[in-house]
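Hi there,

I know you've been waiting on this one. I reran it after we fixed the sequence typo, so this is the corrected version. Both the input and the resulting structure follow.
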Amino acid sequence: MLQALGLSKDADLIYRTLLAEPSFGVAELARGLGLAEPRVRQGLDELARCRLARASAEHPDRLRAVNPEVGLTALLQRQELELAERQRELAEHKTLVLKTISEYAEHSGEAGQASQRLIGMDSIFGRLEQLATQVRFECLSVMPGGAQSEASLDTSRPLDSDALSRGVSIMTLYQDSVRNDPATYAYARWLTKLGGEVRTAPLLPPRMLIFDRQTAVVPIDPSNTKLGALCTREPAVVASLLVIYRQAWEMALPLGTAVEGVDGGPTAVERELLRLLATGLTDEAAGNRLGLSARTVRRQMAGLMERLGAASRFEAGLRAAQKGWL
């Protein structure tokens, strides 16, 4: 139960035992679970740090388990807030790295050098096909924007299938909005069935592919990927992109994980939508960031206003702030 929330197996067992046997102390827990007392104390400390166990009013030398309805809900809310904070930090790192990438794109040389500009979709697809057939152990990718183009999916399918058959690890990040596009969602499901790993998040870094932690392909202009791409083996650039990728991967959820809000609160996508609109972005601009159409943005905002009992977006923002959603 609690292992899915990041706690240890010992803490999970101890928590469930305390719920069933509130009077148990360290000695009773050790005997009942077959654990050494130091492991029990370590598990209790872990529960206390997560606010799932508190000092007993009747027995000050013991801890009591906090009601799951209170403790687990609060734990999920704290993790959600931490996730949002890390996403904001990721966005700051992304800006710095994109500036560096842009500088390399402006001054990169021709093929054979550390960085190469790929102009036109045929040039990009051709280079990606070459890299995909040469990859030895790992391919990392970020695919923002929700729905992926039919050409991209058609090109990727045989390459991904071949790489997985050779034992290459494929880890792909999509936006949560990928669930709104049947073709892209079906592709993601197909990829996981073949052994690939797919995670989703409300916001993602710009599109990127990293092969064997040595070669990266990123768009020259993230807002218009058709303009061209930069293929680079510059160690500093690839290392920076790897840091951004790993942060984004840790914050994302496996494909198929439920994304509903806690106790009627906003989902991760809804929380980001509220935050983006609160900064003054239009429906279209916020939708572009989240991989959603303007129509979907308006529909989600209408639903949020109804749940908040707000008659206007301004009032919805005030009530969302009062509830701690912003």
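Quick highlight: The domain at 268-322 is CATH 1.10.10.10 (Arc Repressor Mutant, subunit A).

Best,
R. S.
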